[in-house]
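For reproducibility, we list the full input for the adenosine-5'-triphosphate complex.
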Amino acid sequence: MNPQNLIEVVDVHRNLPVGGRILGVLNGVTFNVAAGEWVALTGPSGSGKSTLLGLLAGIDRPTSGSVFLEGIEISALPEAKLAQVRNRKIGIVFQAFNLIASMNVLENVAAPLYIGPHRRNARELARKMLAQVGLTDRLDHLPHQLSGGEQQRVAIARALVGGPSLLLADEPTGNLDSATSTQVLSLIRDMHRELNLTVVMVTHDPQVAAYADRQIHLRDGRLVDELPVFENIPAGIARGLQ
Ligand SMILES: Nc1ncnc2c1ncn2[C@@H]1O[C@H](COP(=O)(O)OP(=O)(O)OP(=O)(O)O)[C@@H](O)[C@H]1O
Ligand SMILES: [Mg+2]
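The corresponding predicted structure, in tokenized form, follows.
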């Protein structure tokens, strides 16, 4: 393992049973992500992006192959140790925000700290994190009393409050309009810079992917090195080049 790599994914396969058959969802995926890098994972619907993110998150395990995080083979850890790695090293944000409806903003952000080493000052750390995402005046709101962009900022605060080294985001702006998407992406960019956070973000939107340092593309569960040149550039310009 190269110490500069936060993540190493080595020949990962993931097979899933579908209607009596075995479907190869990931078919031999290998790549690295450097510490402090922001990578966008793109590809058509069904290409295996969310499945791959689940393996990086330690929510799911590969059928074969290995996933290393900071040199630890998370794909081979027993569940109790894996849960600890998830809690301490990984923050996750989803398209649908996934906040707990009955808890207010402060409680949602403090919640993951109650199972880690910070339980004594959970509320204080949550308050600080909410200040960083600009939501100090929303602490006692319930999720349904917030806009979509505010809910996603709470979800980002919850993902980062434990001081993870890795943020995983699956279509984080998929439910937001374009102005709100820009705000949320700017927030991720600020956190990436200020906290030297490594980010792996799934998106099918080229404008969102452009925020990343590097893009990797999946197709049919395999990485494709580069998009064909005409997919990378606006259609009008591509036609002009033909
Ligand atoms: N639990 C499951 N059981 C069976 N098949 C699954 C399961 N989860 C995903 N799949 C299949 O695996 C393939 C990849 O799914 P995945 O959700 O990773 O795609 P994706 O690239 O994230 O797509 P999208 O852009 O639509 O979110 C799809 O064909 C899907 O039907
Ligand atoms: Mg998906």
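The pocket of magnesium ion (ligand 2) is lined by residues 49-50, 170 (CB under 6 Å). The mean pLDDT is 92. Both points were considered when choosing residues for closer inspection.
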